[in-house]
Amino acid sequence: MTTEHEQHPADPDRATAQHPADPDRATAQHSSGFSRRGLLGAGLAAAGAGVGAAVGIAGAAAATGVNPLAAATNGDESLDLSQQHPFYATAAGQPQGGIRTVPQRHCVFMTFDLSTSVATDLQVLLARWSAAIAQLQAGKTVGSVEPAHGNGVGADTGEALDLGPASLTVTVGLGPGVFDERFGLADKRPAHLAAIPTLPSDNLDEQLTGGDLSLQACADDPQVAYHAVRDLARMARGTATVRWTVLGFGRASAGPSQSTPRNLMGFKDGTRNVTTDDEFDRFVWVDQPGDGAAWMRGGTYQVVRKIRMNLETWDADVVSDQQRVFGRTKIDGAPLSGGSEHTTPDFHAAHGDGTTKIDARSHIALAAHEANGGVKILRRGYNYTDGLNQYGQLDAGLLFAAYMNDPEHFERLQRKLGASDRLNEYVSHIGSAVFAVPPAPRKGSYIAEQLFR
Amino acid sequence: MTTEHEQHPADPDRATAQHPADPDRATAQHSSGFSRRGLLGAGLAAAGAGVGAAVGIAGAAAATGVNPLAAATNGDESLDLSQQHPFYATAAGQPQGGIRTVPQRHCVFMTFDLSTSVATDLQVLLARWSAAIAQLQAGKTVGSVEPAHGNGVGADTGEALDLGPASLTVTVGLGPGVFDERFGLADKRPAHLAAIPTLPSDNLDEQLTGGDLSLQACADDPQVAYHAVRDLARMARGTATVRWTVLGFGRASAGPSQSTPRNLMGFKDGTRNVTTDDEFDRFVWVDQPGDGAAWMRGGTYQVVRKIRMNLETWDADVVSDQQRVFGRTKIDGAPLSGGSEHTTPDFHAAHGDGTTKIDARSHIALAAHEANGGVKILRRGYNYTDGLNQYGQLDAGLLFAAYMNDPEHFERLQRKLGASDRLNEYVSHIGSAVFAVPPAPRKGSYIAEQLFR
């Protein structure tokens, strides 16, 4: 494998410029809901009410459009692990959790290969998963931990007993394989779902690519997230086998008064992310799912990349060069063209000698929507660490997860970054996959039920 | 490698029976300090005052002997990430943090091989580490993130900026190698420090054993713990190289009103742990360090084992058998002889047919202090997960860390468990190391300074 020029898309710059004083930004970052035009009010209010008394604070907050986490994490940095997010939608086309949800502190991502070629097996799995996720997000087990007198195998492995919901969300994705010749679902393939082509600087490990299904479990307690994926994987036995997994962590950014989280390179990551209702509608939620794919309306696409960072090389670099690579200052995250973190970068600002203050091959210059036809994607990444590699060096990086209404938007960006980004010297894309993420089901239904009709 | 009979020491039973209503237990679990006879009052009060205004709530709480975490986690399950633990001792023989400290939610453990054979190199490293740990535990960086105009390599990698102290403690240990022929320190070797011998059912991976130095960084934020070890490892360059590492997580047990945390087998872990002042003095703190090792008085020994759990096999077992293996019920953690979690197990109670209710080869029967000459060790373990193994199965288990005033106590216990424990079918000890843990230094000094005099 050649690793001389690697790539990566996932850091302090990608999307739009939202000033902290911008009222849109404040509103959007405090909403854990979604914004499908015309559905907003009724949908959220009903979502809060629909789950009943057990929802408590989180439900009440969701009903008013206020993110319960924001209240918990703002200012005092404390965290309330009794918070929960409802699973079921109360109107068609509402998205699943874990996309616009304010990022929780931990994430377990796992993909699966279907070992069946019978569509009803997949259907049953999605139905079982949906019922189980609804339980898990409410802080409950997926079934009995101690079946009658212990004379049976437990339906739930038990390690999350008493830990509470911890803001868990589990997001389910369907890979391109679901629509191949096996299941007779080819004519329902979402318009933009196809395996990600080879991109410049790709350094993929085959064992960390693809999958027919994906689970993204995020929670404020790692044991709650791990338990969810473990027990859902267990439920898939006989229908799907585990393919690859990444465990991530990160401090949430819960609003303008909370600082932007940092990646393991020490730089702020997420300054110019998708935040407003309008941006979500334009760039994230699927409005035109394609012929036969009406079941995807209100859904989105998930692109996941496991991006290894060569931390020991990075740590030996002088900070002025690190800043040139990103195009921002390290501590404040201000663009090198001046101002503070949320100042819009001026890619034309130049020094006396005519060189631009922000290097044209810096990460923020190449990734900026201004340089990419206005395209933005929602980034929702986590840091990961796998301990040490075979050379005794830190093995760590970024679990890059992004949501968009057309994966081509990611590909376009990464083609450019993979070819030219100064960051390529320090990162390596080793994992990759794409999934269609259907909207949330209504109570009594399950994820993607409409796909099987 | 044969794995038919593996072993493990690390779970729902090991030490003393402490009833929740026992006043000793309530007191001890709410103390994050220590209990060297005669030092307690002055030491803790001074520790709180010594760190100055920056200590805030945590310092004030420590000064009164009340664990600040208990207040934060009791009842509402919320967590205050602005809490901090002071690093420096204010009297001789006070222990380092991370031993009696109420377990934080995350842990990064790492060992190092010394690449120097010059004692002053080791001395300088311990001095630098001590100064850095004092900074880190106060929520500060170990040096400049952006040196003058960025024209230099950052002293701190920056990813924990603004994250606060998050109750960080970093515990430093010295392995047997420090006292070999290299450094001229052989005559100062602590009485009981020697490599752990091969024990029954050992299935060790050479790459996960030993080390001349250890760091155990625990915090309520994983990025804070990771940053600490990363930057301390960076500081060791040229003097020591990284050997092995494990990243752990777990929900803290902060007192009688907080439930006992569960391991990944779904069972409560830590019900009969060392808790009282008297037990700490008898079983944990070193009172007789040996000839030439006066520098260890008030310290302790750290035994660390990486214990893999065969979770997929375990998950397929009927719960009644799982309960027989542990000797306790799964949900409540009550001994199979009856009662509730904190009821003292009755190892003689029998069914009508004469068989004991608690199997003689169950984990709690073999590990009980009643069956081991009254010996107890302090367990302070974390769950870990390494993703998937080469068979696509969950690769996870327990980062077992225990503290005791003689590692032979662990060896004695593990010899028995490794030979007979029913749990051996489901676990495998793959990593192992032992370290002498000196007491905390006073301000102006550093860890183990006395060793070099």
Automatic annotation (TrEMBL), chains A, B:
Main location: other
Enzyme class, broadest EC rank: oxidoreductase
Biased composition range(s): Basic and acidic residues: 1-27
Annotated ranges, domain Dyp-type peroxidase N-terminal: 96-249
Region (Disordered): 1-33
Cofactor(s) named in the record: heme b
GO MF term set: peroxidase activity
Recorded catalytic activity of this chain's protein: heme b + 2 H(+) = protoporphyrin IX + Fe(2+)
Cofactor note (record): Binds 1 heme b (iron(II)-protoporphyrin IX) group non-covalently per subunit.
Domain of life: Bacteria
Keyword Transmembrane: no
Subcellular location field: Cell envelope
EC annotation from Swiss-Prot or TrEMBL: 1.11.1.-
Domain Dyp-type peroxidase C-terminal span(s) in chain numbering: 260-440
This protein's UniProt keywords: Heme, Iron, Lyase, Metal-binding, Oxidoreductase, Peroxidase, Signal
Family: Belongs to the DyP-type peroxidase family.
Protein's job: Involved in the recovery of exogenous heme iron. Extracts iron from heme while preserving the protoporphyrin ring intact.
PANTHER family, A to Z: DEFERROCHELATASE (PTHR30521:SF4), DEFERROCHELATASE/PEROXIDASE (PTHR30521)
Protein name: Deferrochelatase
